[in-house]
Design brief:
Layout: H1 2-14, E1 33-35, H2 50-65, E2 71-78, E3 81-92, E4 105-106, E5 113-114, H3 119-132, H4 142-145, H5 159-163, H6 184-193, H7 210-223, H8 227-236, E6 245-246, H9 250-253, H10 270-278, H11 282-289, H12 292-296, E7 304-306, H13 308-319, E8 323-324, E9 327-328, H14 332-339, E10 346-347, E11 354-355, E12 362-363, E13 368-369, E14 372-373, E15 379-383, E16 387-392, E17 397-403, H15 413-425
Antiparallel strand pairs: 1-3, 2-3, 2-17, 3-4, 5-7, 6-7, 8-9, 10-11, 12-15, 13-14, 15-16, 16-17
Pfam families: Beta-lactamase
Protein name: Putative beta-lactamase
């Protein structure tokens, strides 16, 4: 209770703080709030209260009030039913810069957003489908399928090590930068030529971008399909997704919400770690993500795009043991393999915080973890720190919180923690 009181107090203070670049907050939040009423069911039908659900939405409004996110959308399910499907803010035209001259466009629940690193969960799932199909074994070396990868000490790096961020391949090659992300062939050549010291393999270090390109090549090799085609065949079409693609075609890209760098611009040494992981600053990432090149690219670790509801639909399918609306998207054992812990809590040498991973997902913890208190069974993924995408089988919930601000140093973190705490407080295990 003391911790909760302190968090609530900090959140209230945050209403009045403006750290670095922030957006203009309207006097009435109702004027920038969109609700898909036809989706939302009575909270009582899933063992919740109206007051509890209102408290969760107020927590979202507190995130918006920090001024660090021009747009936020939330899809929250319990017991498979949508409780909240809402959005707040502007998809474009209310960025933190005075040079943002775009016409203001309201954020809607059906507005697609780039999931950034939330993409990794889907790419990992596709690899697990290959294992289910007996086309690969997760513990085989990558070089068994792609011999050219086995150069310079990488011959024994397994697919599982790539999925669980233990391959030693966490850094993008120095010769590459964010403008190279769309050239998958060039990136693959550089990754194959990378030298890895033997002691580096097995160490936990988050792969911000590299892992996706390796996993994509495996999919190409064993299916003779592009990763986009395989995603369409096994996930997007069977689950009736409108978006949910790596990048978006021009007709859909015009629906996409813009991203904005907010908060303080990080300085050394933080800026060094960001550049090492992402190949660019948050400002450069935000600008690049709004370009046609980025929308047309396939970046398996970073540019899956879709709505909050679509990502929530994916996590709900996992909660359903691989079933969506009567269709078996994957076998229950595949869900177990995807969500099972691999290695106990350990300091991640890229993120510099203790983390628990499965072969593709970020896990919760006990007594507290990434997904809140008593969340040891919860699994999901962050998207560039601020996007919160997870499911918790003990609470029978799937949560997809998307936003378009890219702050690293700002006052948004207490509000994000408060949101997770609010979800867990109003959903008993």
């Amino acid at each position: 209770m003391i911790i909760d009181f302190g968090l609530q107090s900090l959140v209230r203070v945050n209403r009045h703080l403006r750290i670095g670049k922030t957006i203009r907050i309207p006097k009435s939040l109702a004027t920038v709030t969109s609700i898909k009423h036809t989706d939302e069911v009575d909270p009582v039908s899933v063992g919740m209260t109206v007051e509890g659900v209102e408290a969760i939405w107020r927590a979202v409004e507190e995130i918006y009030r920090t001024g660090t996110h021009p747009a936020i959308s939330l899809c929250f399910r319990r017991q498979g039913k949508i409780i909240l499907n809402r959005a707040i803010g502007h998809a474009s035209g209310n960025g933190p810069s005075t040079t943002d001259n775009k016409i203001q466009k309201l954020m809607l629940p059906e507005t697609p957003v780039c999931y950034f690193s939330g993409s990794k969960a889907i790419t990992a799932f596709l690899i697990h489908l290959l294992h289910e199909d007996k086309l690969i074994d997760l513990h085989d070396p990558v070089s068994f399928y792609l011999p050219e990868f086995g150069q310079h000490g990488k011959q024994n790096i397994s697919i599982h090590q790539v999925l669980s961020h233990r391959s030693g391949m966490e850094k993008m090659p120095n010769a590459l930068h964010i403008d190279s992300l769309a050239d998958n062939d060039e990136i693959w050549q550089h990754l194959c030529a990378t030298k890895i010291p033997a002691a580096q393999t097995g160490r936990l270090a988050y792969h911000a971008l590299t892992g996706g390109y390796i996993l994509e090549r495996i999919i190409n090799k064993v299916t003779d399909m592009s990763i986009q085609e395989f995603l369409d065949l096994r996930v997007r079409k069977p689950m009736k997704m409108k978006y949910f693609r790596y990048g978006l075609p021009p007709k859909q890209a015009c629906d996409l919400a813009d991203n904005y760098a907010t908060g303080f611009k990080p300085t050394f040494p933080i800026s060094y770690f960001i550049k090492r992981a992402l190949g660019a600053s948050f400002e450069r990432v935000a600008k690049a993500s709004n370009t046609e090149i980025y929308h047309n690219a396939v970046i398996p670790s970073a540019n899956l795009m879709g709505t909050a509801e679509e990502m929530g639909r994916f996590y709900q399918m996992l909660l359903n043991d691989g079933i969506w609306e009567g269709k078996q998207i994957c076998q229950p054992m595949t869900v177990r393999r995807l969500t099972r812990e691999y290695g106990s809590l350990e300091c991640d040498s890229t993120l510099l915080i203790p983390m628990r991973y499965s072969a593709g997902l970020m896990l919760g913890g006990e007594p507290v973890g990434l997904w809140g208190p008593h969340s040891a069974q919860a699994f999901g993924h962050l998207g560039l720190i601020n996007k919160l995408l997870w499911a918790d089988p003990e609470r029978d919930i799937s949560v997809s919180l998307l936003n378009t601000g890219l702050p690293l140093i700002a006052n948004n973190i207490p509000s994000l923690i408060n949101f997770i705490a609010s979800i867990n407080a109003h959903c008993s295990r």
